[in-house]
Design goal:
Blueprint: H1 3-23, E1 28-31, E2 34-37, H2 38-62, H3 68-91, H4 97-119, H5 128-147, H6 154-219
Antiparallel strand pairs: 1-2
Helix pairs in contact: 1-2, 1-3, 2-3, 2-5, 3-4, 3-5, 4-6, 5-6
Length: 220
């Protein structure tokens, strides 16, 4: 297993730690004379996990270590991390539930579109707007976590989360507008070819059966 895949698995490992740290509202401990709260610990875990997202892609491209396993695991790890963070923020009442549902629902919708496109022979790469959305998510989630200890950041966190919602909806609309018609046409064409092939096969079998029946009659 190469280093990028190890970093991706490490990001998945961070998910339960992030949830455990964020939902433990009364967690406080001293470290080098500094009082560390559960929000600070959760923020450190989240930023470390987000850093692995940047590193694994960079290393995989730089060292030529792009693998099928890494390609499959990387988006799963990203979605697990963001979804776990959003759901945990809803749990501790740092963001409204409908925002989390909208953002997570967008991720599932795009994943479904990618799966359908892959079955039709298309590869949907991440767009610049999608990458901007990921950066906005990291900033917004970080601000939301910090706002518990620093209430002055709450308005900024709220604006950042609305920005994430905007980019999520806009990027999803662009993905579907750009690829859905192509994917739908490709699937319909492939299905039409399959039906024509089945029809030719049935006709051939019928002719062969008729010829076999005629030979049997001649023999008699």
């Amino acid at each position: 297993m190469n280093l990028p895949n190890v970093l991706t698995l490490l990001r998945i490992f961070f998910v339960p730690l992030l949830v455990a740290a964020l939902v433990q509202e009364n967690l406080r401990f001293e470290w080098n004379g500094v009082t560390v709260t559960n929000q600070m610990l959760a923020l450190a875990i989240f930023l470390a996990a987000a850093a692995t997202d940047l590193l694994d892609g960079y290393i995989a491209r730089r060292w030529g270590q792009i693998t099928t396993v890494g390609t499959l695991l990387d988006p799963i790890a990203d979605k697990l991390l963001v979804s776990a963070a959003l759901i945990s923020l809803v749990q501790v009442r740092l963001m409204p539930g409908w925002m989390a549902i909208l953002i997570i629902g967008r991720e599932f919708a795009i994943s479904g579109l990618r799966s359908i496109a892959a079955s039709a022979g298309y590869t949907i790469a991440a767009s610049d707007l999608g990458k901007t959305k990921m950066v906005a998510q990291v900033i917004a989630i970080s601000l939301a976590m910090t706002s518990k200890d620093v209430p002055e950041l709450a308005p900024m966190a709220h604006v950042a989360m609305w920005t994430v919602v905007f980019f999520s909806v806009l990027s999803a609309a662009m993905y579907f507008r750009k690829f859905w018609r192509k994917v739908d046409d490709r699937i319909k064409l492939r299905r039409r070819k399959e039906l024509l092939a089945d029809e030719r096969r049935r006709r051939k079998e019928a002719r062969l059966a008729g010829m076999a029946g005629a030979r049997t009659t001649e023999v008699r």
